[in-house]
Amino acid sequence: MMQFYIDDIIKTALLEDVNYIDTTADYLLEDERSTGRFLAKADGVLCGLDVAERVFTLLDPAITFQKFKKDGHRLEKGEVFATVTGLTSVLLKGERTALNLLQHMSGIATATAQAVELVKGTRAMITDTRKTLPGLRPLQKYAVVCGGGRNHRFNLSDGAMLKDNHIDAAGGITPAVEKLRGRLGHMVKLEVETRTLEEVAEALSCGVEVIMLDNMDCDTMRRAVEMTAGRALLEASGGITAETLRQVAETGVDIISIGALTHSVKAFDISMKITPEK
Questions:
Q1: 197: which of 71, 135, 182, 252 is 20 to 30 A away, CA to CA?
Q2: DSSP H helix total and E strand total for the chain
Q3: Active-site residues: which are they?
Q4: pLDDT (tens digit, 0 to 9) for every residue of the chain, 278 residues total?
Q5: What is the rounded (10 degree) CA torsion for 256, 260, 263, 266?
Q6: 3-state class of 149 per DSSP?
């Protein structure tokens, strides 16, 4: 990701917290210096360390940030994986923003890694969706990759996807596909959302590259896999949980998209403990 793109996200977050002064740290601490230690308070997958570093260096380029791990590395409870050293007031200004982003991104990476582990040995790949928090999409999708998953579309320009409302508005799968086919560039793939096996058969007859199996039970998805016989990629989507993930993967689908990886993931527990310099 381009640094100026990420900087804009970080600056927006910092402005929510410090738009003029920090009325506590700026009045209490002037020239004092400290070191902050980043501590994992659970087992998981690290993500967002470079983002956390950038929070502090945007506030003060003289900050020193030392990393003992990299994004995508496993963390153990109690492990110190980075330190930040500089003016105490700067550390306190950046602490909450850095932790918010680091905890959220590591939570996504950890949840993704758990999902990837659950489907291990099947053909299914785990992907995210566009159900991301406004403004945080690039960070969230990067975190999915750090956890071993893949990215679905970043935005509506990345690929053509006929969902139920598109199909209903256009009068059906076939007329919708025919109209789009006449206008899409040669680099753009087409995915069609289906709700029944009849719709799967119609999408196959239209020669689309990807077919979404929306909220289908496992027996229906298994029959869709048999019908398709490799002629299109099959994506399972809708209400898939950790309890049902393995069963869905064993139907033979190629892709399992999970919106919960980004829209409702639990933050990974990380703290930053500050020690003043003597």
A1: 182
A2: 11, 12
A3: 96, 131, 163, 193, 214
A4: 788 889 999 999 999 999 888 889 888 887 899 999 999 999 999 999 999 999 999 999 999 999 999 999 999 999 999 999 999 999 999 999 999 999 999 999 999 999 999 999 999 999 999 999 999 999 999 999 999 999 999 999 999 999 999 999 999 999 999 999 989 999 999 999 999 999 999 999 999 999 999 999 999 999 999 999 999 999 999 989 999 999 999 999 999 999 999 999 999 999 999 999 87
A5: -140
A6: coil
Contact yes or no for 39/270 (Cβ under 8 A): yes
Q: How many CA within 13 A on the CB side of residue 220?
A: 17
Sign of the CA dihedral with 231 first, then 200, 115, and 147 last: positive
131-135 LR contacts (CB < 8 Å, sep 24+) = 131/259, 131/262, 131/263, 132/262, 132/263, 133/262, 133/263, 135/9, 135/12
The amino acid at 187: M
